[in-house]
Specification:
By secondary structure, this protein is an alpha/beta fold. It has helices spanning 46-53, 76-86, 102-112, 119-128, 144-156, 174-190, 202-205; strands spanning 2-13, 20-31, 35-39, 61-66, 69-70, 87-91, 162-166, 195-199, 210-215, 218-224.
């Protein structure tokens, strides 16, 4: 089942002599349950693509469909709701609320919609991510790797159609980086979560089952590894 489809997605900033082409026509299809790495150096367009897929930004042209929803048809309010419910976002900065416990940080997306969590699914997430014993802790009581696990749990709580991880290990040392990538792989395997991992690090990209390389706003290779 196709969960994401991009058709000739373009993004241009500025105009005339100051025009910068960030995306020059991206065609991409991702099936449900895939773990895909989007690899590219700084300025290649990979983060611009992530922001557009997360409905944080809009393309200049082209079409994006996620889980049957055409993003171009959403207004700003609809896009924010769609992002919260259908797209999980994980950044290198954890963006946890320091005055809330781990449990409350994880449940924020549901709380915004005044929805109650599914206890079994909640337990499965925190158990898989190894943070069951940290639920009443505050963010400042956790290591960087643990905080990133909380951020991943928060992104998964709504059972998103797509999880977008933007350089999620960029703030971590080697040991914690490996742990976070292992957690993403576990989420992909145990929760059948579709993941797009944005990275400039080829070693991290090799952990995915498919690597898409972006250069100058274009896809230059798309390699399935297994």
């Amino acid at each position: 089942m196709e969960i994401l489809k991009c058709e000739n997605v373009r993004k241009v900033y500025g105009s005339g002599d100051n025009q910068v082409v960030a995306l020059a026509g991206i065609d991409l299809s991702v099936r449900k349950g895939e773990f895909v790495a989007i690899l590219g150096v700084s300025g290649s367009g990979k983060s611009t693509l992530l922001h557009i897929l997360g409905s944080v930004d809009k393309p200049t042209g082209g079409r994006i469909v996620i889980d049957g929803t055409d993003l171009s048809k959403l207004n700003r309010t609809q896009a924010a709701i769609f992002r919260r419910r259908k797209v999980g976002l994980v950044y290198q900065f954890y963006n946890l609320i320091p005055t809330l416990t781990v449990r409350k940080n994880i449940l924020i997306p549901l709380a915004l919609d005044q929805k109650k969590p599914n206890p079994k699914y909640f337990d499965k997430i925190v158990s898989s991510l190894g943070i069951s014993d940290k639920l009443e802790a505050m963010p400042n009581q956790l290591s960087g790797g643990q905080q990133q696990r909380v951020a991943i749990a928060r992104s998964l709580i709504y059972r998103p159609a797509l999880l977008l991880a933007d350089e999620p290990t960029g703030n971590l040392d080697q040991k914690n980086s490996k742990e976070v990538i292992d957690m993403l792989k576990l989420s992909n395997r145990n929760l059948e979560q579709t993941i797009l991992l944005i990275t400039h690090d080829e070693k991290i990209a090799l952990e995915a089952e498919r690597i898409i390389t972006v250069e100058d706003g274009r896809i230059i290779s798309d390699e399935r590894r297994r």
